[in-house]
């Protein structure tokens, strides 16, 4: 019998994961944190949010994200499009121009990422002090 707040997926051998059970591989929170927890995802979302509702061309996006390779940016954008957080529009020009923008779902994520950035900015001095006091910490 399945408990309220659990999910059962085909091929899951009857193992259920409670919502928010970060130790379970099929936990929705864990799956999204695995995807969203990269620096490139948060940077892409921030850049696209700054220009929203306008879209941003791939080349312009890359210029605004120092250090990202073309391959990594492409993979990050593909993942965000697949998750429904970003839209992709190709203009049939020569050469083709590819534009990206946030969906409503992506915009709702940006506000959460902004809260995390605010928390980090507020607490980074304290965290840095702990790191400096801890041998072997980076």
UniProtKB/TrEMBL annotation:
* Protein name according to UniProt: HxlR family transcriptional regulator
Species in which this protein is naturally found: Nocardia jinanensis
| A Pfam family | HxlR
Quote the InterPro entries the UniProt record gives: HTH_HxlR, WH-like_DNA-bd_sf, WH_DNA-bd_sf
What's the source species' lineage? Bacteria, Bacillati, Actinomycetota, Actinomycetes, Mycobacteriales
The protein's matches in PANTHER family, at most eight in alphabetical order, are given as: HTH-TYPE TRANSCRIPTIONAL REGULATOR YODB, TRANSCRIPTIONAL REGULATOR, MARR FAMILY
> In what residue span(s) does the HTH hxlR-type domain sit?
27-128
Show the GO MF annotations.
Answer: DNA binding
Q: Where is the composition biased (Polar residues)?
A: 1-15
């Amino acid at each position: 019998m399945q408990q309220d707040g659990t999910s059962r997926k085909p091929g899951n051998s009857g193992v259920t994961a409670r919502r928010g059970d970060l130790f379970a591989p099929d936990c929705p929170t864990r799956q999204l944190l695995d995807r969203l927890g990269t620096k490139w995802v948060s940077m892409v979302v921030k850049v696209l949010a700054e220009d929203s509702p306008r879209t941003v061309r791939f080349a312009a996006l890359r210029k605004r994200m120092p250090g990202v390779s073309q391959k990594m940016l492409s993979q990050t954008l593909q993942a965000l499009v697949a998750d429904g957080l970003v839209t992709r529009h190709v203009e049939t020009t020569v050469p083709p121009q590819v534009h990206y923008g946030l969906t409503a779902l992506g915009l709702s994520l940006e506000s959460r990422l902004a809260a995390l950035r605010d928390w980090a900015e507020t607490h980074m001095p304290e965290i840095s002090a702990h790191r400096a006091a801890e041998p072997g910490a980076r």
